[in-house]
Design brief:
It is a single chain. The protein folds into 3 domains: 3-245, Aminohydrolase, N-terminal nucleophile (Ntn) domain (Glutamine Phosphoribosylpyrophosphate, subunit 1, domain 1), CATH 3.60.20.10; 254-443, 3-Layer(aba) Sandwich (Rossmann fold); 450-600, Glucose-6-phosphate isomerase like protein, domain 1 (Rossmann fold). The protein has 20 helices and 27 strands. The strands form 5 sheets. It has an 8-stranded antiparallel β-sheet with strand order 3-2-4-1-10-9-11-15, with helices on one face. A 7-stranded antiparallel β-sheet has the order 5-6-7-8-12-13-14, covered by helices on one side. The mean pLDDT is 94. The structure holds 5-amino-5-deoxy-1-O-phosphono-D-mannitol (M6R). Residues 305-308, 352-354, 357, 360, 403-405, 489, 493, 606, 609-610 line the site of 5-amino-5-deoxy-1-O-phosphono-D-mannitol.
């Protein structure tokens, strides 16, 4: 995905745009660019991060009160200056930025090539800007009409912003499948627009979320929103519920570390008003109309990607054990292409931090088309997935900016635990004592996460020992198997060390061949129903001279005797261990990556959410 931002008003656009790009940089950092209008168009683009663009522009004319900016995660064409956005029409009259993919760009490009158009870049976006200008010339029409006509012929996903030298007091935007938020400034005719609210929050709290197939016209004549048939609708103005501090580092070196440390609060926020243990109360307000469907579901299918998929795997264990409903967890990217068996009335739960992941969104649409009821678990309020689902619950983790997901995982698992408990209560699958005990334990998790965070120094020491390892193995059983997967994903995505998560008992069916004295093996070996079994697995590793780092329950005396390094986490009910065990694994990945000199907030090749297939 990419980040896009625009400004029109009386202030200088450049400082607003560049700050906005820094805020959106988590969405992609292969290249960045801006276009500014001040009588004529000035376009500046640079490969690399936003700071490199800033450096490049420092001595250039950056004046103008209308501007757009882009930070890119490359899809069509390698990261370089030429492929960077904005892209301009051949006559340099129009500049356009784009987040998404124009799927039929090749056919349009062929037509334009026949007409003599020349292309500078390899991008689908440049095709779109030439196409709009071609229509504008042919029809002798306004930019707005040309944009509308062009979009009726476009297949794919887009959030775009367009400016024109010939119609300088307006900014046009459109979306289909990629998000756009419009901020309404304090002065008449002042508007901010961006991929998410983070560049807008310090300027205004009044926002309008653009819907799919809508075009926004912003400028001196106000804010007008029209559909592709040119029918105007009344903008629905909402108040942003986001604090500026939540999108700043607040004294931490990296967003990831800040977000790891926020977990006691973000988990508490996920439960706020939804769980009161002393009253035996657990309720997700978002499930209302469809509660009977969920409670009586013959099976539940969970779709998600990456870390959200790992949270879904924890939910499978939770819902099956506590509420006795069969659960299947699917990679959204596989589900959408494999003709899955989904019938009318089936329940599908979609989990997504960003609420914008293209594969998850497509899986939802597929399940919907087959009559399923879709329940969403999202973090970003108003996101595409939140809007595409029938009902759902927000996780209330606050903005997650580090590309490696941390606090969203624990907040997702918290909400999914509440969901499992709610279903268990309605289905009477737990005794009163079991139910009450779990509610109390869950309510106490934030304090216990706080305690787990005190492990930071000892985890740092372990990270120093293993920072140069070439491979890591992560093992867990039962509820701790998804934690092993998540620990391995965290390490590989930010430190670039190859890591595998495995069910501990599966190790002997293959991965055991990898073990020698060079191989660090992180084993989540807490006191739970698999305790004795995981001890056997540890012994199997030690017999082959693997180095074992064990995450154990505090007070354990057996396992520390047989392993190389020990990380002690607080005691809790087995079903809640993932919420505690994942914390030292997040810290381990963080410290290893920092010691290796990696940029943990912006790891190579990644973007915060993947809005392309
Ligand atoms: O926004 P989503 O939860 O839908 O994102 C899913 C994955 O792309 C995401 O979890 C990704 O795996 C993260 N980089 C993991 O840290």
């Amino acid at each position: 995905m990419c980040g896009i931002v625009g400004y029109i008003g009386k202030q200088q656009a450049y400082p607003i745009i560049i700050k906005g790009l820094h805020r959106l940089e988590y969405r992609g950092y292969d290249s960045a660019g801006v276009a500014l209008l001040n009588g004529h168009l000035n376009i500046y683009k640079k490969k690399g991060k936003v700071s490199e663009l800033e450096h490049f522009i420092a001595q250039k004319d950056n004046t103008g009160s209308v501007g757009i900016g882009h930070t890119r995660w490359a899809t069509h064409g390698e990261p370089n200056d030429v492929n960077a956005h904005p892209h301009a029409s051949y006559n340099q009259k129009i500049a356009l930025i784009h987040n998404g993919i124009i799927e039929n760009y090749a056919a349009i490009k062929t037509e334009l090539l026949k007409k003599g158009y020349q292309f500078q870049s390899e991008t689908d976006t440049e095709v779109l800007v030439h196409f709009i200008e071609e229509i504008r010339q042919n029809e002798q029409c306004s930019l707005e009409k040309a944009l509308r006509l062009a979009l009726t012929k476009i297949v794919g996903a887009y959030a775009i912003i367009v400016i024109s030298e010939e119609e300088p007091r307006q900014l046009l935007a459109a979306r289909k499948g990629s998000p756009l938020v419009i901020g309404i400034g304090t002065e008449a005719g002042e508007y901010f627009i961006a991929s998410d609210a983070t560049p807008i929050i310090e300027h205004t709290k009044n926002v309008v979320y653009l819907n799919d197939n809508e075009i926004a016209i912003l400028g001196e004549s106000g804010l007008h929103i029209k559909n592709l048939q040119n029918v105007e609708t009344t903008p629905y103005i909402q108040t942003l519920d986001m604090a500026l501090e939540s999108i700043e580092k607040g004294g931490y070196d990296y967003f990831m570390l800040k977000e790891i440390y926020e977990q006691p609060n973000s988990i508490a926020d996920a439960m706020r008003g939804r769980l009161i243990a002393k009253d035996n109360y657990v309720r997700l307000g978002g499930i209302h109309h469809y509660l009977p469907h969920l409670t009586n579901a013959k099976r539940i299918v969970i779709v998600a990607c990456g870390t959200s998929w790992h949270a879904g795997l924890v939910a499978e264990y939770l819902i099956e054990e506590l509420a006795r409903i069969p659960v299947e967890v699917e990679y959204a990217s596989e589900f959408r292409y494999r003709n899955p068996i989904i019938e009318k009335g089936d329940v599908v739960i979609a989990i997504s931090q960003s609420g914008e992941t293209a594969d998850t969104l497509a899986a939802i649409e597929l399940a919907k088309s087959r009559g399923a009821i879709i329940y969403g678990i999202c973090n970003v309020v108003g996101s595409s997935i939140a809007r595409a689902t029938d009902e759902g619950a927000y996780i209330h983790a606050g903005p997650e900016i580090g590309v490696a997901s941390t606090k969203a995982f624990t907040a997702q698992v918290t909400v999914l635990t509440m969901l499992a408990l709610m279903l268990a209560q309605h289905r009477q699958t737990l005794t009163k004592e079991q139910f009450s005990f779990l509610l109390h334990e869950l309510e106490n998790i934030p304090q216990k996460v706080n305690k787990s965070l005190r492990l930071n120094d000892s985890v740092l020491e372990i990270a120093k020992i293993f920072k140069d390892a070439r491979n890591f193995l992560y093992l867990g059983r039962g509820y701790n198997f998804p934690v092993a997967l998540e620990g391995a994903l965290k390490l590989k995505e930010i430190s670039y060390i190859h890591a595998e998560g495995y069910p501990a008992a599966e190790m002997k069916h293959g991965p055991i061949a990898l073990i020698d004295e060079e191989m660090p093996v992180v084993v989540i070996a807490t006191r739970d129903s698999s305790y004795d079994k995981i001890i056997s697995n540890i012994k199997e590793v030690k017999a082959r001279r693997g180095k074992v780092i064990a995450v154990v329950t505090e007070g354990d005396v057996l396992i520390p005797e047989m392993v190389d390094y020990v990380i002690e986490i607080p005691q809790t009910h087995e079903a809640l261990i993932p919420l505690l065990a994942v914390v030292p694994l997040q810290l381990l990945a963080y410290h290893v990556a920092i010691l290796r000199g990696c940029d943990v907030d912006q790891p190579r090749n990644l973007a915060k959410s993947v809005t392309v297939e």
